[in-house]
Amino acid sequence: MQNKNNSAILFENVSLTINNTHILEDISLSVENKSIAGLLGPNGAGKSSLLSLVIGLNNQTKGTITVLRQKLPVKDESLREQIGVVFQETSLYEELTVAENLLFFASLYNIPKPKYRTHEVLELLRLTDRAHDQVHILSGGLKRRTAIARALLHDPKLLVVDEPTLGVDVQTRHIIWEHLKFLRSQGHTILVASNYLDEAQAICDTVSILNKGKLVITDSPNALIAKTGHNLDIECTQEAAEKISTTLKNKDGIVRSEKTPSGISVFLKGDTIPDTIINSVLKTAHVNGFRFRPADLAEVFQTLELSSSTSMNEEIQTQPPPKNIFKRYPILLILLVIALLGGLVFLEVWFSQPR
Fold first, then answer.
1. Rounded to the nearest 10 degrees, how much is the dihedral formed by the CA atoms of 201, 204, 205, 208?
2. Sign of CA dihedral 110, 115, 116, 120
């Protein structure tokens, strides 16, 4: 149930069509104030297109979009002044220093006391010691943090980030995650598009999965993982994989299994204890090794699609067969036969009379 009163972003049956191509179809989505909401999906799922609607780069073809309690499109600049944006491409001026980049953008926002505000965001993103470095010598992670600092200059209520940790190392990923969570604690609402399930699990309050322009599911990361489960990767021969697959078929706690070149992957429900499954496997066949891990994004899609397909089939199978009204009310069949015979007799008499 969408809480409209507490929504920083509200999509109601929104579709986007560009050049007769359906980019987004019937999206209904709510992002609460002072939260981090994740958009996940493979390349081409529609994540960036959805972000473009939020920040006003595109207008929806159908439906209603409300951002910070203003319905889009908005004619004046009042809404854009409350939104900070970090695109996939950082688009910084490479020959300028970090501080010069921020001061330049501060002038575009007409920010009072630009030097003071620049110093604030440099401290916030831990960039003070790199303030006088030219951007072109920075690592990808430092450029990403500089782009986030730029987006925060005007203290926006809503921060929209497309791939926050694109092209950065593991340590920098965690630094950026901590910054985003800190911003949430300071009252900012953050909408993040990502290709990584672990990133959404680390920072997001809710996760919405898009695929082929459609909203597949919205839930908390933990609830999503509980639905889609964990993976038990087993290294074994193909003969052993066949035996394991047969043994685990229809076993409680297992979503599905899938043979791999190195053996078999078993997908467990979120609350399934892997030790029980491992014991069954070891009793069935010899294995070379196994690894327990979270499902990745592609595997989550497969599981969700399988669950959706199974639910549809079960619904079809459980529907009662069409009722034969004549079996239930045989008198109706008798009356119909009498009516047909009576009609035939009437026609025969009618045509046999001389004209």
1. -90
2. positive
The answer to whether residue 316 sits within a structural domain is: no
Q: What are the helix (H) ranges across 186-273?
A: 197-203, 221-228, 238-248
Last residue within a domain, chosen from 175, 200, 221:
221
Question: What are the tokens at 110?
Answer: 């007409």
Q: Which letter does DSSP use for residue 97 in this model?
A: B
Tokens coding 215: 């909203």
Distance between CA atoms of 341 and 312, rounded to whole angstroms? 45
| Same domain for 39 and 11 | yes
User: Is pLDDT of 64 > 90?
Assistant: yes
In terms of Cα–Cα distance, which of 112, 140, 120 is closest to 183? Answer: 120
Of 207, 201, 157, which Cα lies nearest the Cα of 8? 157
Q: How far is CA 294 from the centre of its chain?
A: 17
Distance from C-alpha of 220 to C-alpha of 226, rounded to nearest angstrom = 10
Question: Tell me: the pLDDT tens digits for 149-178?
Answer: 999 999 999 999 999 998 888 888 999 999
- Is residue 6 scored above 90 in pLDDT? no
If one counts every other C-beta atom within 10 angstroms of the C-beta of residue 79, the result is 20
Q: What is the DSSP letter of 277?
A: H
Are residues 175 and 52 part of one domain? yes
Phi-psi region at 187: left, alpha or beta (left = phi > 0; alpha = psi -120 to 50): left
Same domain? For 179 and 196 the reply is: yes
- Tokens at residue 211, please? 């695929």
This prediction has a pTM of: 0.77
Q: How many whole angstroms separate alpha carbon 15 and alpha carbon 344?
A: 58
Tokens of 237: 């021969």
Residue span of the structural domain in which 255 resides: 230-294
Q: What is the largest CA-CA distance in the chain?
A: 116
Contacts (Cβ under 8 Å, ≥6 apart) of 57: none
> Helix axis angle, 98-108 relative to 114-124, nearest 10°?
130
